[in-house]
TrEMBL record:
It is found in: Endomembrane system. The keyword Transport applies. Gene3D superfamilies: Periplasmic binding protein-like II (3.40.190.10). GO terms for cellular component: endomembrane system. Its main location: membrane. Keywords: Cell inner membrane, Cell membrane, Membrane, Transport. PANTHER family: ALIPHATIC SULFONATES-BINDING PROTEIN-RELATED, BLL4572 PROTEIN. This is Nitrate transporter. InterPro entries: NrtA/CpmA_ABC-bd_dom. The keyword Ribonucleoprotein does not apply.
């Protein structure tokens, strides 16, 4: 498909988040149009709406939570239907924010402005223990959806710090744009979400960012482009054209010189409706941690670098391991194969290979072993991956999911209010 081909309309849903940037920029900078695509963007405010409207055929593709296509393909979500991930939308970009009251308790317990996940978790554990000793209600933390990276990253961090997310705190679901208001209103005590909704609480003076998911798991995967499997099968050329447009958009978004224009474009009420100054923190990685001043957080976010848009099967299998860990899914040969089939690096390679893009030869890797920027084997050019360690030192081998899940002392079903 080229610019001279007949125009194909693709209808896409998105949530107002910085990590929707690639999809949004593909439209408003003309990359999609140059590929012969009329990319129609529809704003939604909850991930449940995105999930349902993809399943019902209202959207051909969508900005989705990385575990959501997996959950849909496993039949764990309403309406059913397989959903595939042919492209990711970046690495990192999330954080954990707590209320002023919780931060005060954490600071008394020794929390500083460094954002270290272990130190912050130890301080939070002291606050949780003190409240329990005094007979006070449990703290409530919000995530954006039961099948979200935020749910799994928050649980992982809490559990690794000795806080059982099933019993020591309450967990609930709040749409991303409502997080800061829920915190300000005292409805929740903390949350894990993507930017700019952590910085929004800092700017409003109602919360403190205590750590980032890029510190919990370096180079951690984030949102994806989700597509109904039947639509992708019927429209291979249109999907490939969209991936090419989004690849060019990812390069544009990752260029530091474009940051001012990017935040101006995204600040429109049609997209994020947030002040550019608030979005700049999440875009540049200069995050206000604890009670300190903005400081650079290493490797906070990537739109394109370090194979940020490549749909690693091992990333999908890590999310599946957490579904198994927390009792959302069963590990069987059939479910494992379904998860593997929901990640489609083959479609990514087919679309971007002719462009000469450096593509990794492997589709999966052991997660948590890289301590520095490392070259990987490619079919074209040079490609470097970033450090990918978990803060607790664990390593994930995608061929040993059962052993990995069983290695956690804290695991099993627990409540999550939706």
């Amino acid at each position: 498909m080229t610019a001279t081909s007949p125009t194909v309309t693709i209808r896409a849903g998105f949530i107002p988040l910085l990590d929707a940037a690639i999809l949004i920029i593909a439209r408003i900078k003309g990359f999609a149009e140059e590929e012969g695509i009329d990319l129609t963007l529809v704003q939604e405010f909850s991930w449940a709406n995105i999930r349902d409207r993809v399943a019902l055929g209202h959207f051909d593709v969508a900005h989705m939570l990385a575990p959501m296509p997996i959950a849909a393909s496993l039949g764990l979500t309403p309406f059913g239907g397989a959903v595939i991930t042919p492209m990711c939308l970046g690495l990192g970009g999330n954080a954990v924010t707590v209320s002023n009251a919780v931060w005060y308790g954490m600071s008394v317990a020794g929390a500083d402005n460094g954002g270290d996940p272990k130190a912050m978790g130890d301080a939070l554990r002291a606050v949780v223990a003190e409240r329990k000793a005094k007979g006070l209600p449990k703290l409530t933390f919000a995530v954006v959806h039961p099948f979200s990276s935020h749910n799994y990253y928050l649980r992982y961090w809490l559990a690794a710090c000795g806080i059982d997310p099933r019993t020591d705190v309450g967990l609930t679901v709040v749409p991303p744009p409502y997080m800061a208001d829920a915190l300000a209103g005292g409805h929740i005590d903390g949350y894990c979400v993507g930017e700019p909704w952590n910085s929004a609480s800092v700017v409003a003076g109602v919360g403190h960012i205590v750590t980032t998911t890029s510190a919990i798991w370096k180079s951690s995967p984030e949102k994806v482009l989700g597509a109904r499997a039947d639509w992708a099968e019927r429209n291979p050329e249109a999907l490939a054209a969209l991936l090419r447009a989004m690849h060019r958009a990812s390069l544009w978004c990752d260029a530091p010189r474009n940051a001012p224009e990017l935040v101006e474009l995204l600040s429109s009420s049609r997209y994020l409706d947030v002040a550019p100054s608030t979005m700049m923190a999440g875009l540049t990685g200069r995050i206000t941690l604890g009670a300190g001043q903005p400081q650079p957080v290493q490797d906070f976010r990537y739109f394109a670098k370090r194979a940020a848009t490549f749909p690693w099967v091992s990333h999908g299998l890590w999310f599946f391991s957490q579904m198994v860990r927390w009792g959302q899914a069963e590990l069987t040969p059939a479910t494992l194969e379904t998860v593997r089939q929901s990640l489609r690096p083959d479609l990514y390679r087919r679309a971007l290979g002719p462009l000469g893009v450096a593509l990794p030869n492997a589709s999966a890797k052991i997660e948590g072993t890289l301590t520095m920027e490392t070259p990987v084997a490619t079919a074209n050019g040079r490609l470097f991956l970033g450090p990918d360690g978990f803060f607790d030192g664990k390593v994930f081998d995608p061929d040993l999911i059962g052993d990995y899940v069983n290695s956690f002392d804290i695991r099993g079903p627990g409540p999550l209010d939706d």
